[in-house]
Amino acid sequence: MPALRPLTCLRAASRASNSLSQSTTAPRAAFSTTQRARGGHGPQYDPPSGWLWGVRPGEKYEKEGWEDIFFYGFYGSMAVFAVAYAFKPDTSIQTWALEEARRRLEAEGILEDPFPVQKSETLEKN
User: Fold this and answer.
1) What radius of gyration do the chain's Cα atoms show?
2) Contacts of 51 by beta carbon, 8 Å cutoff, 6+ apart
3) What is the C-alpha separation between 106 and 111, in angstroms, rounded?
4) 92 vs 112: CA distance, rounded Å
5) For residue 123, what is the enclosing H or E element?
6) Residue partners of 112: CB distance under 8 A and separation at least 6
7) Is there a contact between 80 and 72 (Cβ–Cβ < 8 Å)?
8) Three-state DSSP class for 23?
């Protein structure tokens, strides 16, 4: 089976698309007599009032219902995350390797035990 050459396929596809676009000369608006409705929610633009956040000087800002929930939920979760991150256990491979190397060196007698008093006290208690 002969392989298709990419340029030949591209030329054939462009010819086919050109012939299709030339054969359909009727405009799209001819099929419909009404204008298409897009969105249907009305204008989204609020004209500028000239006041910061739309509150005139001397008027008190009226909070919306979601603002307190957002404030306490967002900043509360940030505080919980900070505490959890501060107290998370160290599970890195470097820490494990350092402890394992120290343990093996102590077992071979190359490295002295850094806490000899504590181990002797625990042996006496048992």
Assistant:
1) 38
2) 57
3) 5
4) 25
5) helix 116-125
6) 106
7) no
8) helix
Q: What is the pLDDT of residues 67-122, one digit of tens each?
A: 999 999 999 999 999 999 999 999 999 999 999 999 999 888 888 877 777 655 55
> What is the rounded CA–CA span in Å between residue 111 and residue 102?
7
Cβ atoms of 53 and 61 closer than 8 Å: yes
Contact 106, 113 (CB under 8 A): yes
Spatial neighbors of 106 by CB under 8 A, at least 6 apart, are: 112, 113
- Output the pTM of the full model: 0.41
Supply 107's token pair.
């077992």
CA proximity to 98, closest of 79, 114, 118, 84: 114
Token readout for 44 is: 């989204």
CA dist., res. 116 & res. 125, Å (int): 15
Number of residues that this document lists for the chain = 126
With the C-alpha atoms ordered 81, 83, 89, 92, is the resulting torsion angle positive or negative?
Answer: positive
pLDDT in tens, 108-118: 888 887 777 76
Chain position carrying tokens 């007599």: 33
